[in-house]
Amino acid sequence: MMTPYDTGETKEATDAMDATLNQSKAIRPSRQEAEQAIDVLLRWVGEDPKREGLVGTPSRVIRAWTEFCSGYDDDPAQMLARTFEEVQGYDDMVMLRNIKMESHCEHHLVPIHGVAHIAYMPDQRVVGISKLARVLNGFAHRLQTQETLTAQVADCIQNVLRPRGVAVLIDAQHQCMTTRGVRKPGVSMITTRFTGVFKTDDLLSRRFIDQTKLA
User: Fold this and answer.
1) What is the number of helices (H) and of strands (E) in the chain?
2) Residues with catalytic annotation?
3) Is residue 104 within 8 Å of residue 140, measured between CB atoms?
4) DSSP letters of the chain?
5) Residue 128 belongs to some domain of the structure
6) Quick one: pLDDT at residue 23?
7) In a domain, 104, yes or no
8) Quick one: pLDDT at residue 2?
9) How far apart are alpha carbons 118 and 76 in whole angstroms?
10) What are phi and psi of 112, to 5 degrees?
11) Angle between helix 146-161 and 129-140 (nearest 10)
């Protein structure tokens, strides 16, 4: 059932994302092929994969990337499945501030580090607060752009929990900009996504932004 806070576009975007993930899983190379690719990369940069310091590096790199991209095996929507209705009529903003976040840029495969702030206005039910951080991790531990990550987190919470509104702000530094290319260390990027009452109520969205500044 659709609520006044749901949009058809959000569901279509979620379905398209799921289809892409299912396709990528179907054609996933073997671990051996992945390690061979790292061996090729080492030789391409001018290294000798057989020297002492690099023996075993392909295997270690693949183990690391298994952690970095563990989100492809997660279902963030499922993390919000259990909710609680005994909240004594609480109907104000629920917010997690300053959630440490790490991801990897899909354009250069280098780290993105930052913090996220997530809030929602409950509609008769709430979710365990750790689940919001798990939803963030589920999407962040994939190859990402910050814009996509922000939208995915907000839309997942909106679609599954069906609150009156969701607000997400991510403030992060991208090593594709700080350690290469233009090389501007210290620069951070801010993205936001508002749904429902956070999108229609300027005072509420300002209140959310003000709360993030206290983190």
Assistant:
1) 8, 7
2) 105-108, 146, 174, 176
3) no
4) ---TT--HHHHHHHHHHHHHHHHHHHTPPPHHHHHHHHHHHHHHTT--TTSGGGTTHHHHHHHHHHHHTGGGG--TTGGG--EE--STT--S-EEEEEEEEEEEETTT--EEEEEEEEEEE-SS-EE-HHHHHHHHHHHHSSEE-HHHHHHHHHHHHHHHH--SEEEEEEEEEEHHHHSSTT--TT--EEEEEE-THHHH-HHHHHHHHHHHTT-
5) yes
6) 55
7) yes
8) 40
9) 15
10) -120, 120
11) 140
pLDDT tens digits for range 164-197 = 999 999 999 999 999 999 999 999 999 999 999 9
Domain count, the chain: 1
Q: Is residue 36 part of a domain?
A: no
pTM of the model: 0.85
CATH number of the structural domain spanning residue 77: 3.30.1130.10
Q: Residue 157: what residue type?
A: I
The answer to whether residue 171 sits within a structural domain is yes
pLDDT value at residue 215: 59
- Cβ contact 66:141 at 8 Å: no
The pLDDT tens digits of the residues spanning 118-138 come to 999 999 899 999 999 999 999
